[in-house]
Amino acid sequence: MSQQIAIYVLKHPETRQVFYVGATSNIATRYKSHLSSNQNPHNAKNQIIRSLKSHGMKPIMEVFCVCDYQDSHNKENEYIQLYKDQGCLLVNVASGGGGLRPMNTHSNPLAKYYKMTIDMPIELHTALKIEAAKRQQSMTEFIIAAIKRELAQPTATQDTHAVYAADGDG
User: Fold this and answer.
1) Which of 4, 24, 49, 168 might form a disulfide with 30, Cβ 3.0–4.6 angstroms?
2) What pLDDT digit, counting tens, does each position of 48-95 carry?
3) Which residues, listed in sequence order, are joined to residue 68 by a DSSP beta bridge?
4) Are 8 and 26 within 8 A, CB to CB?
5) How far apart are the C-alpha atoms of 71 and 151, rounded to whole Å?
6) Where are the domains of the chain?
7) What does CATH list as the number for 4-85?
8) How many CA atoms lie within 13 A of 81 on its CB side?
9) DSSP letters of 110-157?
């Protein structure tokens, strides 16, 4: 019998937004590993988790399927693509995830989005979601567009070249 692998997501505990898709053979051990303070401090997933913990919260780990080891990589990539198609901004760094590594919130709209939404009160999150719906956008699209507009207007402390590079123009 082949080893069984769980495909799971990590979600923000208040907004329920998925920010990571993973696979593991031991759910409890993997969750503890995610919460461990000795994780790479420059990894975006770990920065999100540290920020949550600093606000007295922990991410929600939700298992979506269990499959044989041989199928686990394909299944994980299917779920990564599914969540990307739904507009989730995943921070996976493994193949298929194409996520962020360090969180450079000065020039990277996705990093700035995560920093902003992690610290966002639930009331503001709800108000933004309503405004985004009025514009027929997902909340993520709405906030990223606003951040990109903000980043496109350089201030004395911003590096204009970094802004263009973050938008793929540089």
Assistant:
1) 24
2) 888 888 889 999 999 989 999 888 889 999 999 888 888 888 888 655
3) 4
4) no
5) 41
6) 4-85, 109-166
7) 3.40.1440
8) 8
9) HHHHHHHHHS--HHHHHHHHHHHHHTT--HHHHHHHHHHHHHTS--TT
Closest to 150 in 3D by CA, of 137, 138, 134, 166: 166
Q: Which residue has the higher pLDDT, 119 or 99?
A: 119
Task: State the pTM of this model.
Answer: 0.61
Residue 118: CB atoms within 10 A of its CB come to 21
Pairing state between β 60-68 and 18-24: unpaired
131-135 — which CB contacts under 8 Å span 24+ positions? none
With b for 16 or more beta-carbon neighbours within 10 A and e for fewer, the 144-166 pattern comes to beebeeebeeeeeeeeeebbeeb
Largest CA distance in the chain: 62
Contact by Cβ (8 Å): 89, 113: yes
Place 160 in a pLDDT band, splitting at 50, 70 and 90: very low
Tell me the three state secondary structure of residue 12: coil
Pairwise pLDDT comparison (127 vs 116), residue with the higher score: 127
DSSP string computed for 85-122 = HTT------STTT---SS--TTT-HHHHHHHHHHS--H
